[in-house]
Structure formats: structure tokens, C-alpha cells
Design goal:
Length: 120
């Protein structure tokens, strides 16, 4: 009986992870620019301000305000984020974290990626 309990527990964990992954994919596919952040993260704040200045009108999703935030963080890492936050998606595609975003911006490549996305 104990083996069955462990099996059910692992199935529940996998199911929970899939639900969080679906939530991330849904949010990023339904919104032009999505930034997953934590409210206490200064790098998240800097990336958010950059997108505001570019008039990108991002959906900012603070995972530390979500009871399922830890699972969402794991889902972001599984999707390929090198750091769970900030994680920036444009048009449903993972662009990256702070280093990638700032590098793209300094090269002048970030603004063209925002073409066709809703502006504020």
C-alpha cells in the first residue's frame, strides 16, 4: 500500500507541474509581452521600467504574490530560463532574463521584436 501512496504522490506532483506549465504557456500566448517577476527583485524592476519606457505595455506577473509561485518558478526553469525571474516572453516566445534583455536593448534588437505587440 505504501508504494501506491508514493506513486499517487508523484503523479500529483507531475500533474501540478503540468498545470503550472500550462498556466505559463497560456499567459505568454494570450499576451504580447509578459514579464514574470518577484516584487522584491531589483533586476525585475529594472526590466519592467525598460519595457514601460519602450511603451510595450507588458503583463507583469509577480510570482511571489501567487500561492503557486514556486511551481511557476520551476516551470519557467524547465522552459529554459537561466534565472526564474525576470523571465521575459514576447509573442509567446521566451526571450530571456535580465542579461539577454539588456544585451538586446543595447544592440538595438529589442525594439524591433516589439513590433506588432500592443503599445501603451
Amino acid at each position: 500500500m505504501e508504494q501506491n501512496s508514493v506513486h499517487i504522490y508523484l503523479e500529483d506532483q507531475v500533474l501540478d507541474h503540468c498545470i503550472r506549465m500550462d498556466k505559463v504557456k497560456r499567459l505568454t500566448s494570450e499576451n504580447g509581452v509578459v514579464i514574470f517577476t518577484k516584487s522584491s527583485c531589483c533586476l525585475c524592476y529594472a526590466v519592467n521600467i525598460l519595457f514601460q519606457e519602450l511603451r510595450a505595455n507588458p503583463l507583469v506577473y509577480e510570482i511571489d504574490h501567487d500561492p503557486e509561485g514556486r511551481e511557476i518558478e520551476k516551470a519557467l526553469l524547465k522552459l529554459g530560463c537561466n534565472a526564474p525571474v525576470p523571465a521575459v516572453f514576447i509573442a509567446g516566445k521566451l526571450i530571456g532574463s535580465t542579461n539577454e534583455i539588456m544585451s538586446l536593448h543595447l544592440r538595438g534588437s529589442l525594439t524591433p521584436m516589439l513590433k506588432g505587440q500592443p503599445l501603451s
